[in-house]
Structure formats: structure tokens, C-alpha cells
Amino acid sequence: MDQLPKLLNEYFEIPSTSSQRKQEIESHLESLRKQRSNIPVCKQILQNPQSSTSYTHWFCLTVFEELLPTWNSKMTVSGRQQVKEFLWTLLINPQYPEMFASFVATKLATLIVHIARQEMPSEWPTFFEDVLALQTTDPQLCLNLLKLAVEEFMFIRQDSNMIDMQQTQLKSIIASRAPRICHVVIQVLDHIYQTQVQRIGSNSPSVSSSTTLNVGTAFYSPYKSELASLSPGSKTSDLSPLNRHLLNSYESPLNRSLLDDAHTVPLVYNASLDSHYITLCQTSLDIMHSLLSWIPLEDPLPVQSIVKTLLCYSQFTDDSMSNLGSQSLSCINEVLQRKYTPQGHNEFISLLINHISEILRYLMSSQDSSVDHPRLQDIDSDYLCKFTDLIGHFISQHSYKAETENGSHFSEFLRLFYNYTFAQQSSEDFLACLDIWKQFIGIMLDRSKKMDSTASTEYLIRYHGGLVGIVDALFKLKSSSSTIWNSEERKLIEQHSLDVIVNVADLFPSDILQRSFDLFTTHSTTIFQRLDGQSPTADTMRECTLSIEMALLVFGRISHLFTNDFDRTFAASFALVDQFCTFQEFLLRHNVMLNESLPTTVMNTLILYVHWFTNFHQAAQTNSEMSSKFDNLNQLLQFSSSRLLRAMSETVRPDLFKIPHVVKCLSELHNIAFNTTSSTRDGLYQFATNLFVLPVLNAKIFEEEWKERSRMYQQLMQPLVTAFVELVQGPNFSNTAQQPQIQQQIVLSIEAFVGCLHAIEAQGTFPKETVFEALQATIASSMSLLNVYSNDNAMLCVLLDYITLLFNALRAQNARENMDLFTQTIQLFMQMLKGESLTKHIQQNLGSAVVEKAINFLSTTIDHPHKGSSTILPQIISFCVQDLYPQCIDGNNTFFDSIRPLFYDMLYRILLNHWRYFFNARVGIALGGDPTDCKNETEFMAIIQIFMLSFQGTHVDMIKQTMTIFEQLNEKCRLFSRPVFVQNIAPSIIKCVLDILLQKTLELLRDDLIQFMGNIVTADPSVVVTHFFIEKCKSFTKEQQNMLGSRLENIKVL
């Protein structure tokens, strides 16, 4: 123990102490800590703290802490008593705050509480009384001990050795003491609020005397000050005002009625507190929050008085006080979310609604006359979040009582909350408010369903204007939200807004339908004007598009209103759907002039009406009038709306073969599809393929039926397949291949095949086998076209996309039947694009697109290794290194910016998926393999060299991607520890990274570069010792270099 200060100083204060020496010191200190013979020495040190450091004080307390695990089993009663009395005396010493550092003082207090946990209730039954007695002499210590006791007694740690019975007993002790603890805490908060809060400026925002919530401006603290009862000559006159007040409070009966106390201090918004009092309040509120989360909210706990006090503190929003306000709101939220309702709930609810309304009014008022934005824009976000939670809890728990209570001003509260909702500056806060509105509307809907028709109508009409106004505001917000929040936030807000609008539509369907329809027709007229040659401004078009999309989304979400009551709503729903179809047809005619988002939204809305279409078709079978209307719907739009057909075949899956119109569509499929756009053609062939490869909903297809379906599907596709093969393999094809009409026919056929493949891309074996058998004859012909159109970039893009999809969608089938053909095609393609040929393609139109699709094409083999991979992999690597990289990736040509990430990712997957080609281990067992065994080092180094060269460029994203790739390879394959990397690669990387750091050319990546270099160095510090020290540390002595090397070794060990 004599060496204790020296050891601690060496461990904490001397930077040169090695990690090995620190381990030795830790071992020695651990031994000293467990020797009970050292307790007298520790007592002596703690009794004379001025002669020792804080680290020594801390260690001495840990010696006592070692007694806790065997406190009851190995220590005598007298021994426990002596230790407890010593520590307690040390704790309550008047010089206690000056004797120890704060972390030592906290350790001592925590140790006392841990002892109390061991001894209560049998050996220290007066613990809480002893702690509460401190409130007259040291309120801060009293509160600190109460906070620790509440936390330690309530929440037992996992490493605790206490039995369940003792844990239950401790919680019971806390529960029994909770009213008294709360009483003390509230007394502290009340006294500070009454006497110490400094008012700055006006108490609250100006409010008209006629305001219905005028009562909300006169909240007072729930307790009277008792300082007047103390005479100047009292024995407590030497105490601080707070201590004298607490003494009076402590001596008053615990069960006195607190609810009868009058408020004496008005609410204060602009306020300040001394830091000492802020700490007292924060500790008090922490205690209250811990207790309110679980103790029974019943007598003798004065819950209403507690809430009144908490409401006073909940108003503090200034920066220095906002933590108090936030924690007060958290405490109130704990009470409300536990569904607390007192017997005299009228006063409680009135208190809450008035106070919340007053804060809402304050937050929505301006800071001063020169500022036109509300105060809430300057309020702490955590405070606003918890205040919004308070509103949500109040709505969910007490909205019914509030709206039925006379004089509760619930409607005024909702008006204020409406303003608060649409004044939010962050998407998170706005979404939270929308969720509260959704919850309230749901409560209204449930309540109205329990009423008779007359009462329900009278009840809903009270909220009609307000809720419809919310819908109007949400529509308006949609048209302007692109300037408020980013696209991801807008999507989320759009979803939540729709939830609210749909809920309002359940209450007032005709109003929401009319508003949505007016919004749709008004703005669609503007779209028509733009497409017919008139010129509304870009801002007007953006607003119109967003408004139409919002209306369409609403129509989609409320489609069930028409489906559930089809007969009664048919006239309106038919007019609505006809309007959609007319608008979509107009958009499709002018497709090239519009962004695709609007036609897509119209189509998605029609898809949501698929059940309505089904009902319509069924009704048309027996009703001639409906049948006429059904036939009069625009046939061209029905066929061109392929997404609707595809959605029906994928989701609803009716037996469409029984519908003559569908059978007619299939019989004319190729003619119809070839007269539509590319995207529509894709959807139509997906629809047709789904009919054969997807069973009717809830039906099962057996093997014999699969054979029949396959035969029928081949029969459907046979004319197109035959025409394609005969065209490509025809004797005159080489002479006519470059003719536009021939190229168009090939492209149309391939787009049809692509639609078929898209339909089964995510399906199982039988659907894929069905499509494979139908298209198998086209595979060899399609691949042969690469050579025919080797100089036509546009055709190459189409062919590469198709062959890539063909391999990926039918991987198992092609691996079984056509793997050699695919390998030969890849080899032919790489040979075709080598050298000058690649240069010519790049210089032509769509040059970068060809390179991008070539990378995707090569990835089909890279991502899925097979038996022949090792034969073609060297050629792929050579093509990447010698052709693609120097001509497309190297340099600063912005023409290929979008391709660089794809290229580097392909190289990464070459290494990852074919690791065994370079090393004698798969990735899964690379960590256990021989790191020295490297095969094909030349090719490995060629790929790594490309990655390294990215550090010399100016593409920040590429450098960051390269570092990520290296880190991933190190994590999966232990790259940084392999000799080939350590000897040939690491020195160059470190040099390059150091140059970048020293030249400060890429400051945005500074932290990432340092972390990256650090990972390489710590994997094998010899890299730095061998290369860096020799080049960069020439002025250092050998001893200094060795010391740096030793530090690196220590870092690696850690």
C-alpha cells in the first residue's frame, strides 16, 4: 500500500507507461484491492484526503466495494457496522463537497446506497430517514442519495447476487417510501419555483381578455411558502432559505391535503435560474421520473399536486432551462400514459387542457413584433418532441371527457393544436402531430359508431369544419412540400397525410370526395392547356402535378367506398373511373412531353380499383345497360394499360380464361403489343405469361396441368419465336440486318421476350421451365446477333440487356443447357470490344451505355461461379485491366462518372467470388487458410493496382469506395495480413495516403483516410517500420524509431 500513490500516478499520469507495464500495475492493484488488511490504511487515507490524489481516493473506495459480494456471508455484524458508520460519517462531513473530486463523491454515495441495499430492512431500517434528514443541511446530497437509491432499489442489475425475494422486498420498500420521497422532491421544486426563478420580461404572451382560455394564464405553484412562519430568532435562522423551507416541510404532516393549497406564483415563460438550483431541480425531476414510471398512482401519493408542480416547470423553454422543461414533460407523460384519472377528474382535465393550450398559444406567438415566425422555431427539439407526446397522451386518454365537460374549451384546444401542427419545421415533429390527428379521428369514428344516427350526426357536425380544414391544409401542403422537405421525407409525409385524409373520408365521405375531385379536375385542366400548346409556368405545372397526384392517391385509398357499396355508388364511381381513363389516354398521347410519374400514378390508382372492375364486369353479364357502358370504356386504354392487367394477374388472379374478352386479347396479343410503347409491351407480355405460369388464387397446379400449360404457352409464343428465328437465320439476313425495319422487328421481338422473362424472374422452377421451353429456340439466335451488330451501339444496348436478363432469370436452365454457349458468347464479345474497336464504340453515340451494359453482362459470370469459370476468368481480368480501365475508367473524363462505381464493384466481386482462384482458400475459410499461399499473383496485383491508382485521382467517391472495398476484403479474407499485400501493396498505399494527408488535398476524407491507414498499419506494423521510418523519419535516432515501433506494437495488441 505504501507504493499505491506511485503506482496510480504511473498508470494514469505518465504517458510513456507501456501497455505491458499497465497490465502489471492492474494485476498488483487487483491484489491490493482484495486484501482486507488494507482497509485501515484506506480509512486513514480517506480521513486525510488532502494528502492524496483523487485516483488514490477512488482506489480506496474500491477496496470497500470489494466487501459487497460477501457482505452478509463473510463479514461480522460489528465489521459491517464499522464500515458503514465510517463511510456514512465521511459522506455527511460538512466539508464533503470540498474534500473529494466529483467522481469520487459520486462513488462514495453509490457505495453507501449499495450497502443500504444489502442491509435493508433488517440492519439499516432507518436508511431513508437518515437520508431525508440531510435535506435540512445538504439538500443536494439528500437528492443525490435519493436518486441513487430509487435507481438501485428499483432496477436490479443483471450481475446482482440478490435473490428474487430480496429484490421484491426492496421494491416494496421504495413503494412505501415513495409518497414521502415525492413530498420532499415537490417541496424542493416548489420553493425554488416560488423564490429563485428570475422573471425576464412579460409572464406570458399577450392574450385578449375575451379569450376562452384566459383562465390558463393564472396557473400557480401548488404550495404556499412557509418561510413566514419562521421568526428571525429561530434555531434555523442560520440555514439557507431553501434549507429553512425544507425543514418546515419535513416537520409538517405527510398526509396533509396538498390539493387545497392555492397557487401563489403565475406561470413564467422567460425565466432563469442559478446553475446550483438548476442542478437541484434536474435531480429532483430525475427522481420523480423514475418513481412515476412504476409506483401506484393512488393515495397517499398526491398525484394531482405533483402534476401541478410539473406543469409549472414544463413551461421552461429557454436554452438554459429547456432540460427542466423536457424532463417535466417526461414525468407528466409517465402519468398520462399509465391512464391515470383521479376521482375528481374534471379539475384535473381542466388543469391539463388549460395549461397545454397556454403553452400552445405561447409557442405560436412571435418573439417580438419584428419577427414574423412563431417561437416554436427557436425551441429545443427535445422539448417539442415531449410536448407533442403530451398532447398525444392527452388526446388518447382524456379527449372524450374533455369534449363532454362544460367549459373545458376543447374546441379551442384543437384549434391551437391545428396551428401548432402546420407550423412545425421538421418532418419528424409534423409526422408526430399527424399521428395524433389520426388517433383522434379514429376515436371519433369509434365513438360515432356507438351512437344512433341522430346523435352521431350531431356529434360529427361539431368537428366537420375543422377536420375538413385539415384535409384542405394537407392538400395545400402537398403542392408546396417539394420546397420544404427532401424527397424521402415527402414520401413519408405523404403516407401519413393520406392516412389522416382517409380517416376523415370515413367520417365525411362526400366532402372529401368532392374536394379531391375538384382538385383533380381543376389542375388536370391546367395540364391539358400545357399539352395543347399553352404555357403555364414551371412552378404552376409542378404545383398542378403534385396536387393531381395527391388527389389520385386519395381516390386510390378510398376505392373501398365504391367497391363495398357498388350499386349505390355506381354512377359516381363510373364517372370517376371514366375521368381517370380519359386523363390517362390524354397523357399517353403526349407521353414524350411529360415526366413519367403522373401517368404512373394514374395507372396505380386504376390498379387499386381492380375489385371495382371485377364487380363491374360481373354486373355487366346480366345487365344490358352496364354491359353497354363496360364495352364503351376506351378499348385502346384497356389494352395499353398493361400494368392494370398485370396487377390483376399477379394479385387478384381470377380465372381470366373464362372471360371471352381476355381470350380475344391473347389471340391478338402480338398485333396489339407491337403497336404500343416499349413499357406497355413489357406489361402486356408479363400479363400474358402470368396467365399461364401463375395459378388461380388459392388453387394448386399439378404436374400434368403444368405440362398442359407449358404446351399452351408455347403455342401462344410459337408465331413470334418462329418469326424471330427465321428472320435471324434467314439466308439474306446478313444483307438486310442493317435495314431499319429489320432492326425494329428484332427489337420488338426482344422486348416481348423481355416481358416474358420479367414475369418469371422471381418465380419458382415450374414457371421458369415453362418460359425456357418456349424461348429456348431463340437463345442461340439472340447471341449470334452480338457479332452482327458489333458496330451498332443502340442495338448492342438492347442485346446486352436481353442476354444479361436471359442468363439471370433462367440461370439454372441455362447452366444446364447453354453454359458453353454463354461462355463462348462472352469470349466473342470481349474479343469484339478489344483495343481500337472499344475506342470506336466509346466515340459513338451511346458509348458509355454500351460500356455500362458490358459490365453488367460480364457480371453474370462473375457473380455466379461455375465449373468453367477458371477458364474464362483470366480473359475477363485481362479485358478489364488492359481495355476497360485505360480507355474508360482512368483519367478525369466525366463521360464515365456513372460507370466507375460499377467497374470497381465488378473488380471487387471478382476478388470476392473467385478468391480461391487467387489463394488456396474460399472466402468462408480464408481466416483459417495459409496466408502465404498466393496463386495467380500477376492478375491479383493487376486488379489491386487499379484500386491503388484511384488514390492518385480526384474522384472523392472512388477513393472512398476503394477504401471500403479494401476494408471488406480485409474483413472477409484477411487481406491486410497477407504477405503479398504487406510486401508489395501496403507501402505504396501508405505513401499515397500520407501524401494526400500532408498536402491536404482531400480534407473531406481526412478521418476516413487516417482510419484506413491505421487499419493497414496495425495489421502488420513492420510496414511502417521498414518503409515509413526509413523515408520519413531520417532525422530520428535509432532509439526514437524503436520507441515508435514499440508504440505501434502496443496499439496492435490493444
Automatic annotation (TrEMBL):
Q: Which domain of life is it from?
A: Eukaryota
Key words, A-Z: Cytoplasm, Nucleus, Protein transport, Transport
Q: Where is the Exportin-1/Importin-beta-like domain?
A: 102-215
**GO terms of molecular function:** nuclear export signal receptor activity
One GO cellular component assignment for this chain's record is: cytoplasm
Q: Name one Pfam family in it.
A: Xpo1
Please list the GO biological process terms of this entry.
protein export from nucleus
List the subcellular locations.
Cytoplasm; Nucleus
* Location (main, coarse): cytoplasm
Stated family? Belongs to the exportin family.
Q: What is this protein called?
A: Exportin-1/Importin-beta-like domain-containing protein
